[in-house]
Amino acid sequence: MIEVRDLVYEYPSKRALEGVSLSVQPHTITALVGPNGAGKTTLLRCLAALEPPYSGSVAIDGLDTAGAPRQIHARLGYLPDFYGLYDELTVRRCLTYAARAHGIAPALAAAAVEKAAHNVGLLDRLESKAGELSRGLRQRLAIGQAIVHEPKVLLLDEPAAGLDPQARRDLSALLLSLRDAGMTLVVSSHILAELEDYCSEMIIIENGRVVGGKAIKVREVERTRYMIELATARSDLREFLESAGIDVVNADGIHALISFTHNVSARAKLIRDLVGAGFELASFAASTKALEDAYFSQVGHA
Amino acid sequence: MNPELTRNLWLELTPRRLATMAIILALIFFAAGLSGGDYYRPASVAVVLYYFIVVIWGARNAALSVVGEIRDRTWDLQRLSSLSAADMTWGKLFGATAYNWYGGAICLAVILAHGFTHDRFVSVVIDLVYYLAVGVIAQAAAFLASLIAVRRRQSHTRLEIFFYQLAGLIAALAVVYVWDAADPAGSIIAHKAPTDFIEWWGHSYDARPFLLISLALFTAWTLAACYRTMRLELQMRNGPLVWLGFLVFIGIYVAGFDAWLSQDPMMANWDPVALRLALAATAYGFLTYVMVLLEPKDRVHYRWLAGELVAGRIGKFAGGLHAWMMSYLATLIFCSLLIWWQMRLADMQAVALIAAGLGFLTRDVSIFVLVHALPGRRRGDFSVLLILFALYVLVPAIVNGLDVKGALAFFYPQPGNAAWLSAAIAWAEALLVALLAAGRVAIAEQPAKIKPA
């Protein structure tokens, strides 16, 4: 879906990207990580056909950014790290403008707005002014504007910055649902923990280069790992979990590390089942180590 | 309807704002009608209000239409839309100023109502076209200035926005001044008798229709410039043809005024062909200075251009040429033609002066490129303007003060015996600065070393 070959981007005072090549498969969520100033935002802007490369090529859905920037814009959604909204317009008008500006016909715009509002959970706020929304809801509206035309590719630059934990969880669920709906997502961040929940691949950028030269698979992160801790040891913990069809990564009498869905109801049911089966549940929490392990193992070799 | 225009109308034309404007204007006209007298009659007040609402305030809103989006961080959303550059341009230009045009329409209604009862129909229509054109040209010039600033990635302080607005006001003032000069009742601003006829390409034309057509043409070119700058901002490529077309237009337009130059004693012995070539070359030289000052001077782009030329990709190279480069090339061609023409007439003094002028232009353009290619070149344009001020004003004043007249050949084209010396010095300076600039442009940047966070 995204092909980058030998991309070089230069600011007058600095070469920001040096021979970047990468490939992003369709229907995946790829994390773009690296330290501040590494070139993540510049790379995203080149992918979004907002900045012309000095040399090399960027192709989105088979179209070259230098040759067909406006066609790419029509296929793309982009949420910059610092974005603004039309505070004086209602959510409905913000989304209607985004839909119309992305070429959706007037007759179809209302339906597109309703769908986008539903996807980002803003159906009950359609008549609220954008300026009256909380930070988390503004983030949702900004994403709604970026997806209202159902783009093939969605680029998000630091989408979880400044969000509270609940809003971050909601964002994770939203991004996964967008991927399941057929979009290809690239999400940049320098906070690995927030990417853990939804990214299947990771590209590490450092000093304008891709560390290791390619994207790396992040094992098991499509289904987040959860750590179950009991107050009293039970030797049948693994057996119980496996009989319930759960993927157990590791278990002893007190702890079990499982790979499990993000679905809140499914998690609630599992907890109910454990308690119902007499397990004294002390904690049930997401494990956030996999991505960090993968990142530092790569950066260590850089 | 154009989505960008629709969005602007949602924001600009709220019922409360519409009612406020109508009520305030109605009260002002009512008060003017009650006060009596020629100066305060409603039509006179409407003219003043029209200039304020459409020209002054409208130019500010036009300047803010893109700059405001950048300030509010919504510009990337718009750049990523599927809107065409044309839709974006007119949606912004007329959408952001919709409220001004609403107020302006009320004022125009009062002006026209007075006109139809006091003047001939044709005269009222000409006035209407003039008022619309002066509003559009002021707003388009301010809009264009702001777009150019966006291309240059300048910050957008209130002072800078005022400068963009000022560009619109200067364009409007130029229109008002020229229009006033052709007023059948005589110029109020210049206190002169009316200019009934204008000499152009050896023919006399009625002043008002000539100026009206000129005004329409320049308005069209300003709008075209807005559209093409918007294309660049939307990452689309502009070919060189439109700017070349403008150069042809401006060359033909300016060269037609040779009758004005022939009254200059310095050029009394120049024939019409030489005068016309000189006028066109001067216009191109002026455009070179204006465009090299306004356009972004990005050495990364210059290096890319050189790479395309060396690789023989002439289409890409031509498409990447900046307007100042094409203007400089036109100056070079027309100066060469003028030199050839004057050599035929054996006017070697003129040949030397033209060569010197071209040399100094080449040097100045190279200074722009060099200074912007240097490390830490923030405020590069300001530095270049300071250098040029020193070269053309400060140092020559000191040289004059020291009574070393011969040294002036280093700074200006000099008539008389120093003419050829002046030309040689100008080209020596030009080549030196151009070589330095080319060397600096050729150096590629290395990736910055970044410490992990």
Polypeptide structure, described:
- The complex is a heterodimer of chains A (302) and B (453).
- Chain A is an alpha/beta fold.
- Chain A has 2 domains: 2-217, Rossmann fold; 225-286, Alpha-Beta Plaits, CATH 3.30.70.
- Helix content of chain A is 34%, strand content 27%.
- Chain A contains 10 helices and 15 strands.
- In chain A, the strands form 3 sheets. In chain A, strands 3, 6, 7, 8, 9, 10 and 11 form a 7-stranded mixed sheet that branches. Chain A has a 4-stranded antiparallel sheet with strand order 2-1-4-5, covered by helices on one side. A 4-stranded antiparallel sheet of chain A has the order 13-14-12-15, covered by helices on one side.
- In chain A, helix 3 packs parallel to helix 5 (135-147).
- Chain B is mostly helical and 453 residues long.
- Chain B folds into 3 domains: 1-233, no CATH class; 237-290 and 314-343, no CATH class; 347-442, no CATH class.
- Chain B is built from 18 helices and 2 strands.
- Chain B has a two-stranded antiparallel ribbon with strand order 1-2.
- In chain B, a hairpin with a 2-residue loop joins strand 1 (197-200) and strand 2 (203-206).
- The radius of gyration of chain B is 25 Å and the shape is globular.
- The two termini of chain B are 48 Å apart.
- The model of chain B has no long low-confidence stretch (mean pLDDT 87).
- Chain A binds chain B through residues 10-16, 18, 35-38, 48-50, 52, 54-55, 65, 69-70, 73-74, 76-78, 80, 82-86, 88-89, 93, 97-98, 100-103, 145-146, 149, 190, 206-209, 299, and chain B through 3-4, 6-7, 10-11, 72-74, 76-84, 234-236, 298-300, 304, 372, 375-377, 444-453.
Strand order of the largest sheet of chain B: 1-2
Structural class of chain A: alpha/beta
Give the integer mean of the pLDDT values of chain B: 87
Number of helices of chain B: 18
